[in-house]
Amino acid sequence: xxxxxxxxxxxxxxxxxxxxxxxxxxxxxxxxxxxxxxxxxxxxxxxxxxxxxxxxxxxxxxxxxxxxxxxxxxxxxxxxxxxxxxxxxxxxxxxxxxxxxxxxxxxxxxxxxxxxxxxxxxxxxxxxxxxxxxxxxxxxxxxxxxxxxxxxxxxxxxxxxxxxxxxxxxxxxxxxxxxxxxxxxxxxxxxxxxxxxxxxxxxxxxxxxxxxxxxxxxxxxxxxxxxxxxxxxxxxxxxxxxxxxxxxxxxxxxxxxxxxx
Length: 261
Ligand SMILES: C[S@@+](CC[C@H](N)C(=O)[O-])C[C@H]1O[C@@H](n2cnc3c(N)ncnc32)[C@H](O)[C@@H]1O
Known about the structure:
Helix content: 40-55%
Largest sheet: 7 strands, mixed
Bound molecules: S-adenosylmethionine
Number of strands: 7
């Protein structure tokens, strides 16, 4: 999973830069930053780079993710400004210092009770501080015409499974943030549609993403679709996403900027 998230950051580099420019324009110059559900550290590291005087705290349930994040931060020369806190936010709020800027990308929907976590987050953000929430509109698509029918069938099965597990996935967070007391200053949809020249990591990202589909719902595909997926995931061969020249990358994400009054 950490590798998939790192590849996501590489392939969606331009989108991430745009989001960070929005945040930079709205946040104070030397913020104390909190990254909630930090995963492999995409947000923590990008924020530490964009705010060179900042101190970043990354919170995640998974110690494996946090170990990976610490390694990435150290490699990027940011080890002294990025610290990690292992915590299950569903179980309670960890002891955290007040922050000026919080970031929750593709993590709010994992929570059992986002309202409770947002109440704790609201209390942790200083008055005037900013919260950025990112939600996924769709999981990335990669395949060309002729394979989009297969890709949509596979995602329909995966989406149904995700919705059963994570009822808040795809939520419209604006009203939820307002209810928690934040003032929503911006809601910005991003439609990413990448074609030639694609980022170098695209094939590996496609394979990691489709590989998760194989593990998650492969046994629920019919035999023909499973064979298609296996050919796409092969190391070699003309169908393999590692080698085929006709991939593109399409996804949708929404970003909210919300301020504690
Ligand atoms: C889809 S990943 C997003 C990671 C990162 N924010 C990004 O955009 O790349 C969601 C992260 O939320 C974390 N997470 C899920 N449930 C959590 C919980 N109850 N408490 C803390 N973190 C949680 C997962 O471990 C995972 O790293």
